[in-house]
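Q: Fold this one first, please.
A: Sequence and structure below.
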Amino acid sequence: MRTAIVHYWLLNMRGGEKVVEALCRLLPDADIFTLFYEPAQVSAEIRARVVRTSFLNPLRRYFRSLLPLMPLALESLDLRGYDLVISSESGPAKGVLTSSNTQHICYCHTPMRYLWDLYPAYLYDFTQSRWRRALIANFAAALRLWDYSAAARVDKFIANSQNVQRRIWKAYRREAQVVYPPVDVESCYWRPADDYFLVVSELVGYKRIADAVRCFSANGRQLKIVGQGPEYRTLRRMARSNVEFCGKVPANELRELYARCRALLMPGEEDFGMVAVEAMASGKPVVAFGRGGVLESLPPERESAGVLYSQPDEWSMADALVRFERIEGAIVPTRLQAWATRFSEARFRERMRNVIGLADHVPGSPLLVTRQAEGRRAG
């Protein structure tokens, strides 16, 4: 089979890009297609592949402002001759055009937030410039229609959580199977805690990192924030000296930060919560806003893994931190690490093989049988 992986953009290494890495190991001969590509910002695993970009790539510095042009750019990608296409989607990646003989499977991290769930938040976010909000308002309706029609091009949806499975049904009226994303739990380890809490996140508005900055600036506890994004300057201005911005850090340094923190903070509603799994694989608990995918990434006995709070604001977070400090001594790191193993890459590969029908690439697998039968009918 000729296989292709389509990812919305390859400009950093976050959860979506880690899924692409795992797909590369699952499909060792696959080519990669993407809207924007910055080789220096992604892993060697991705750089080793044939990566084909859209005509928008020279403008990748301005990628956040190019949403209205992305449908045209995606539809210009040449996927002729591929038997299997897997799109990795939280932008518009599923909108690629494939032939009638191509199996198109979409691994969906979430339907586009800025068109669906979070559209009102983007539209009425008065911290954004007036021209950006006007651009969103003018193009959103047309883009939603395109996005809905693009969902019809997908043969099978895979959701990264039950949370996203519900969003896919709400936005596209399509069923989806759930395959939790892969986490490199084997490389994580536990160390005695130093006196700091940790945030690992892209610095964008919907992640609500500002709640953590305001909370910790008020209570004086030590907070380390790992990540980059357009909110950096705003967050930096509001932070006091006990809040440290670490920026982008190497993987080995990030593992050490996980291993030595008191707990991971997750102030926003997550699609799934890979960072929560990374923290638990390091034997560390989680203090999180209790909505969305984190309800699936944490064990059912919530108090064994940390504290959830019900309102997305700094006051609820402050109360959760007080509650966390009461139970902190009862947390058992080995139990958290044991729970995290169910989200390993090996589990991901096994589930993906079953859902896609690869059956280790042997003749007679469901996908190959389907393709062969279609070829006979065409003949």
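Q: Good. Now the second chain.
A: Here it is, same layout.
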Amino acid sequence: MKRLLPEGLKRPIRSQLHRLRAWRKRALLQVKRANRGALIRQHFNSHSLIKVSLGAGKHAKPGWLNTDYEPFGHPDVVYLDAAEPFPFSDASVDYFYTEHMIEHLPLSSAQLMLRECYRTLKVGGKIRIATPDMMQLAKLLFPNDGAAEIAGYAEWALRTFPPDVGASMELTNCMVFNNFMRNWGHQFVYDERTLLALLKDVGFAAVRRCAVNFSEDPQLVGQEMHQQIVDTIANNFETMVLEATK
């Protein structure tokens, strides 16, 4: 017969496991930080084209220097806090790429990140940013054109992330909007005008909007991977992509 622990014993065991996991995470992060400089030098010395992925998570791209604030999802991901000065020399990087990450930074931190991208890019270097589009999400509240597309996204979101309101209550697009804005650590969600202003403010001049996974630059084609986490239709609905050149 299976013997169950009393609840009074379960709580301290869970607490101890939580502390052990937190300790292990801190220890791994210290190792990642200590090894960062050597890994960056090795990458720069072994690649003629320097491409840096910011917020790579589990999606380490071949040929890229993959970085993340919590570099635990893939062994090849290097620690980097995008809200701090980058450990790269001026004009040393050819490409930056970031996908569904900038919205997790406060606006002032995002501005610092883009300044660092501009500083460390070579003249003619490019940054590609994929991030949720506030104007697309606003369509959930003010549907007009593309009603079928909006309904499809809302249906997917309510099915995938059902609100905790009970089975009898009507589910609405407002629930979808609030869930997106308040969950997953989102700090500031952009529309195209605001992100364009941010890029121009730090020095970028040539900025253009691209379709997901499409670019005039072969190095930036097929880079989006967020659709592996969410539905492809949902990703195409909510995501905008801007490219800017130094």
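Q: Anything worth noting on the second one?
A: DSSP finds seven helices and seven strands in the chain.
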